[in-house]
Amino acid sequence: MTRIAIYDTTLRDGSQGEGVNFSLQDKLLITTQLDLLGVDYIEGGYPLSNPKDAAYFRAVRDLDLKHARVTAFGMTRRKDVAAEDDIGMKALVGVAMPAVTIVGKSWDFQVLEVLGVSLAENLSMITDSVAFCAAHTPEVVYDAEHFFDGYKKNPEYALRTLQAAADAGAAWLVLCDTNGGSLPDEVSKAVADVVANIKVPVGIHTHNDCELAVANTLAAVAQGARQVQGTINGIGERCGNVDLCSVVANLSLKLKGYEVLLPGSLVHLTEVSRYVHETANMNFRPGQPFVGTSAFAHKGGMHVHGIRKNAASYEHIDPALVGNERRVLVSELSGKSNIAEKLAEYGLEQDSALLTKVLDRVQDLENEGYQFEAAEASFVLLVERLAGRETSWFSSLGYHVSVSGRPDGAAVTEATVKLKAGDAIEHTVSEGDGPVNALDGALRKALEHHYPRLMEMRLFDYKVRVINGREGTAARVRVVIESQDDDSVWGTVGVSENVIEASWLALIDAFDHKLTKDARSSRSRVALAQT
Ligand SMILES: CC(=O)SCCNC(=O)CCNC(=O)[C@H](O)C(C)(C)COP(=O)(O)OP(=O)(O)OC[C@H]1O[C@@H](n2cnc3c(N)ncnc32)[C@H](O)[C@@H]1OP(=O)(O)O
Ligand SMILES: CC(=O)C(=O)O
Fold it and tell me: Which has the least CB within 10 A, 185, 191, 290, 438?
């Protein structure tokens, strides 16, 4: 097996992505996760850049890392300054990490136009910087910035920059597609040339500006690159870096003969991807290959029919290999197979007449603007109602919402709810930050003393979508509410021409689902205790 070293730069190049700003604590938590995953190198930051990165290198020493080597990143010495006097060089070796990564210029145009030095001075900057760091740090990684652009324009000079780094003691030469504009065959050709002519292990660092970062990385590995640099979820400057989740999964599952991470790590890939999204406060990318929530989500009826017979019919791998899971969605594109699969998932009985009835109703409701993909709780309640098994926790007798302006300009929202719970009639009122908050408050006042477990539940997301926009204010709206308790998250949906009515429908489904699911799980606990 050929070992490919995985070098993570989420905390350095990833943090150059728009909207990404890790706190020191975030960086340390991510470091721990990456180490558990079995990443070989973690580029922690740029010690000269800012106080947070400098503090990271002090704090990271206290982590008990099992496998990863933390590297500090910086550029070659400044022009006209000796390496030992350069503040960047001193900062790099001063953090005393097991490895240092130095970025230097490979493209003659960049040297002349951007650095503003001669081609010979750039070679000296590389030599001096690598030699200085190699004398003070166990391992020096040399990142050849713009290598592929430089190689296309002036291959002889680009190769000389690498040779300078190799001769000065670099342990790795990492070829960077800094602008992300290269194509796989260009990458292949250049990597093959470097591997054939320079006797230091080669790495690859790609950006995704042409959506080719993964392809370029795999092309480089095929030509002999033995280190892959990238970020979790592909975050990074402009269109991002190569997504290490995809690289690792492809190297482990699609290509033969490569070994990455630690044995058994792959099943943690989805968890780490979501952890980084959460920590970076970024939305998940549902369609992210391998680890996204939609990566194994089946919607078309024919597909679900196929996977029920054999999952390989519509899945390129078993989702469990990367810690992900199969999902079946219910929509107007469903067939009876989707409904059957969903009923089985919720432990509901299924008979052919019920499947047909549910499918017909789903298709009618979706035609009216409902969407059950993000509102499975409303779907399950619909099934219970159609099966005649619905438990009547409460029935609505009406509601009223008013919004009035106060003299100081603030708006006051008040909701009144009237409902029947058991034999009791409840009539409650609540103020709120807005209509949904006020209705939620009034519903709780009416129901919590009947059903105290409702106190465990909270609403955490509310989305409104206009369905037939051309009708102007008479358009229908779809409201999807996400609720949560200690055990689960569930979505409910309401559709109406009136946004408050649509919210009310989604809200009462949310309360209904909480009571129904708790009753179902306590029934199964009793059944289990009796066996
Ligand atoms: C491809 C990459 O991702 S490389 C990493 C890019 N990351 C970042 O830039 C984030 C961190 N950067 C920073 O915190 C700051 O830019 C610093 C601390 C590095 C430098 O800040 P400043 O001294 O204010 O310089 P500024 O950022 O404006 O310009 C960069 C300077 O570095 C020089 N420089 C750029 N690349 C190199 C290099 N490889 N070797 C030596 N000097 C370089 C430039 O010529 C310029 O110097 P000049 O002003 O004397 O011409
Ligand atoms: C080093 C680096 O981040 C790049 O060249 O893209």
Answer: 185
Distance of CA 383 to the CA centre of its chain: 32
Among protein residues, the one with the nearest Cα to ligand 2's atom 3 is: 13
> Residue 45: CA atoms inside 13 Å, Cβ hemisphere, count?
26
ipTM over 0.85: yes
Cβ-proximal residues to 416 (8 Å cutoff; 6+ apart), any chain: 399, 400, 401, 427, 428, 429, 442
Structure-block tokens of residue 17? 């992505």
CA gap 70, 45 in Å, rounded? 9
Ligand nearest the Cα of residue 129 is 1
Last residue of a domain, one of 312, 345, 364: 364
Tell me: do 136 and 208 sit in the same domain: yes
Question: Which two structure tokens, joined as six digits, stand for 401?
Answer: 């919402």
Q: How many angstroms is it from 172 CA to the middle of ligand 2?
A: 14
Domain that holds residue 408: 394-450
Q: What integer pLDDT is reported at residue 389 of this predicted model?
A: 79
115 ligand 1 Cβ < 6 A: yes
Tell me which residue has tokens 């008990």.
64
CA 107–ligand 1 middle distance (angstroms): 16
Q: Domain end: 317, 344, 364, which one?
A: 364
- Please state the separation of Cα 67 from the chain's center in Å: 24
Which of 162-176, 241-255, 456-470, 482-496 is predicted with the least confidence, judged by mean pLDDT? Answer: 456-470
pTM, rounded to two decimals: 0.89
Residues in the chain: 531
Please work out whether the CB of residue 444 comes within 6 Å of at least one atom of ligand 1: no
What is the phi/psi pair of residue 325, to 5°?
-140, 155
Q: Determine if ligand 2 sits within 6 Å of the CB of residue 13.
A: yes
Distance from the first to the final alpha carbon of the chain: 50
Q: What is the CATH number of the domain that holds 211?
A: 3.20.20.70
